[in-house]
Amino acid sequence: MNLQHLKNAVANTTLSRRTMLQGAAGLVIAFNLPTLAKGQTAAAPADGKFAPNAFIRIAPDNTVTVLSKHIEMGQGPYTGLTTIVAEELDADWSQMRADGAPADNKLYNNLAFGPIQGTGGSSAIANSFDQLRNAGASARAMLVQAAADQWKVAPGTITVSKGVVRHAASNRQATFGELATAAAKLPVPANVTLKKPEDFTLIGKEGVVKRLDSTSKANGTAQFTIDINEPNMLTVLVAHPPRFGGKVGSVDDTEARKIPGVVDVKTLSSGVAVYANGMWPAMKGREALKITWDESAAEKRGSPELLSEYRALASKKGIVAGKEGDAEGALAKASKVIEAEYVFPYLAHAPMEPLNGFITWDGEQAVAKYGCQFQTIDQGAIAKVLGINPEQVKIEMLMAGGSFGRRAQASGELVVELAEAAKAIGPGKPVKLVRTREDDIRGGYYRPMFVHRMKGAVENGKITAWSNTVVGQSFIAGSAMAGMIKDGIDPTQVEGSRELPYVVENFQCDLHTASVGIPTLWWRSVGHTHTAYAVESFIDELLVAAGKDPVAGRLELLTKDKSKRLAGVLKAVAELAQWKGPKLANGHALGVAVVESFKTYVAQIAEVSIGEGGEPRVHKVWCAVDCGVAVNPDVIRAQMEGGIGFGVGHILYADLPIDGGRVVPGNFDGYRSLRIHEMPEVEVVIVKSTEKPTGVGEPGVPPIGPAIANAMAQLGVQRPRSLPIVPAKGTV
Amino acid sequence: MPSYKLTVNGQAHDVDALPDTPLLWVLRDNLKMTGTKFGCGVAQCGACTVYMDGSPLRSCTMPVSGIGSSEITTIEGLAGKEAAAVQKAWVARDVPQCGYCQSGQVMSAISLLQTNPKPTDNDIDLAMNGNICRCATYVRIRAAIHDAAKTLEG
User: Where does chain B hold its CATH 1.10.150.120 domain(s)?
Assistant: First the structure.
């Protein structure tokens, strides 16, 4: 997600200006030692733990727990953030643990978002790197001082390695746990010295850091929101209108209330809630509801109608989002204009754990537990529903079974429904709101549908003009983040297409924003999900027309200063795949694409053949990534593998047709997901870099679609213009 | 509400549930065994995989009234050399990302190795393609199954 302007969002949440200012002040302190002013003593918590700052808890049993301000939804921040602390602390990896930090935007705001606590935009490592290095170094200094005081030696004569504090001359040593109580009584140092990167023993090292959550996830003990079972808890399912914008007209709940286990039925702003003892009675109860929906304000257009409208818009010039030279003039003069239209469907995120949440409310204080991705916004949204202050809403962030953008809600729609469910049944009744797969897939907040219309000209082997008209919805418009829109341009709609990394003399990108009543949202890699496909497919088509090799031709055009790292990963991936041209002796073909997203640079080469029924088969993907300093190389590889699989699955198979305003597929039988036999082999190279670390959760996704399409073009089939590449059977 | 006698992980349980209640919700809501996950409810994703008399079963579509005297095994009750090899390989490879589907993946992988101790890539595709992983950890799932097979070889 591109959340650099998310700070604007705060203006439209329920946070007061005072909270914002406090948050801003917190940000400054957070760069150093968040919980304490300098010179203050770190108080020992009641449980005897040493808490040198907001991020580190060292217990007498010698475990070190890092409080992660970022949600663990698969991308590895629990492991990554803990690695950063452990490095500066000189801890032993086996003593490290991670846990979710509570909601507190003064202590745990995302430094990339301003005063907002939240996860997104592949920013967890990037915004935490300096902050956690300082936190770790500070805690280390206090442990060393505690040892120095006990042993009556100079701190400079003490070393720390693998969690052991040692004074070699007197042959004395102590663990962190043994020093925790004494260290807790010491002042927080005003300045700390960070390690030199060449002294790192964990950051960037292979094989020394293992994910902290692998064991619990391999034996079923990892706790997700759906696993919450609290005394007297009710399970809640909400019946939603079949069309977006529909409202509850009338409800007959007579039959629903007869289902054993159903406790109550209430109407919320989003639909009708069934409260039950357990999931099955809730499901049966919901099915037994007789609801008349008021669809007077509902969106009734479907995908075919929207596509016609978008195509009509795409034939006209929109608001110019990017321009160099005179593309219109150059195209008018060109001897031949190459045109392409790309159509992108709505896409659901479909995380394996459908959205859910738990809340308990006593009338004054609320405690919510769930896979929370936007703490500050959710806190405000819950508070508003319950009529309390955001500070009275405690949020326990649990691990989430995937998100891909879905849990990062500017509207807080999930927690609004959760809080309304709690409010409607009254204080003192804990509720667990659960959604089914159908609720999830038909529930909106999709990657918006887009149409890109491209025109290009090639003269004498050179690309002389490029124009790109983009049509689609803005999920920023009308939301709490509307402040991001400048001169009619929502930057998330055109990121990746409003400026080319390639040198093209005459360039233009313009935008039409469509108004549609289908709720949309960012989806793993946001605008790049479509712009990368359009740009990297079209550059390939123009390079072929110019008689250029796809790799060499790109490198010739990646001469801008800001394109250096892109050229770097492109060269690296070509070397890894032993690129000698797109056609292979075995009848397969290679396609390439290179994309920067979220300040991370990724190039991929896909080996593709055409199988039965004309379906493409992706055999292998080579991937080069430059994300600055590589904190956890194996997590980076995993994110590239996963990003590639996520991209392959959606580009090839995922479609979410809408028929007369109703979403057609409801489950994985209709919304096709990648399966193991469709997953290519993946080989990843991490380009060495001393630049600041950047994220890897999203950047693995954008290049794979166009890489596949570009390989298909080399196999003599039509370049795929409409996604998914493999159309679903029997849908509209 | 009718009562059923179930044997889960070698222990007898009495549960009160509607006859059509899927085994998944009996395990999760009645018995508080939450390692088995809900992903789709229509036997499409495999997150709810358990064993019935030793064979994999999608617990989300199996009504409690149809279990009878069959023995149910969940991820909480795993035992044996295949289970140990698979779970060790899963951790060594750092297979999971979000982890939500992994109980089901692990259950399917163990079952595969119990019947086919040395699976080919194609065998793995056939045995595992009912288990969706939205994080697409498939590369590592495949590698970990091969690792576990090697461990079992001794």
Answer: 81-153
